[in-house]
Amino acid sequence: MTDTPAVKLSASDLLIASVRMTWEHIWFLLIISLILSALYVAAVAPFFGMYIQLFGAAFSGQSNGLYDEPGALNAEFLEAMKWTWIFVPVTTLAMTAFVVLWIRRLALGHPHMFDGGVLIFLWRSILCVWRFICAYVLAIVVFVAILLPVALLFGLIALLQDGGFLAAVVGLVVVFLVFILYVVASVGVLLVLVALLISLTATSLDYRLGIIKCARLLKGNWVAVTLAAAAIGLTVMVVSMLLFGAVMGWGATGGASEDGLSTGLIVFLLVAYTISVAIYGAFGALGVAAFGKLRPDAPNTAPA
Known about the structure:
Blueprint: H1 11-24, H2 26-44, H3 48-60, H4 70-108, H5 118-159, H6 165-204, H7 211-217, H8 222-255, H9 258-294
């Protein structure tokens, strides 16, 4: 039996296909992004008062007594959290449903987005939420398992804390291993996220493939799909940093009055989240492009 993958994917081809599909459906994606942005703003609205105080104090350089009574700030945070517990399940399901909708539109076309009816569509969305939960747990397990040797070495240092030179040597070894293993753990988590992307695509298209099965499906193509995903992720990170820098610059140049900051913060969240979600849409396109090649029986790109 050979270990050669049935299909050999190219990172550049996947990236080009993802950008092309995203661009072909850009208006639909922007509409989804705006709706998700509104949901996000509604979810964080209870925190606006606290954010405005903190941003205003940071921009003005004066605490105005804000930090003199940290208990009051904590109380405001806990009060806002009451609403968050209501919004989290609703927004999580809604956002996942839009992921399913986006993937099905890309792979199957507009007429087939709700095949089977609303209840079947809801079940697909719930299954995708479950995939997210499984990936989250698996990522934690991978991270902890890889960094466990470091924890054991820290325990050894504690035993040798009065050991002079030996303790210093062990300490240097631990610092080096922390760096190496942290990089390895981060790569491991990234691979889990790549498998999640394929699993979300498969589940949205009614293929019952969990994280582990999709990891096996990626055999021999990890590098290509991971590089394409990393390129998209880097783009999201750079754009998000630029947007955050823009709002910080706006506040520092006089936009930090309470009324101005309140309005600006809402506008910033809407714009930043809309743009970020639109770029994230390329992840869904990447999943469709990769899954369509990995499973010849799966749909690939529907007409725009």
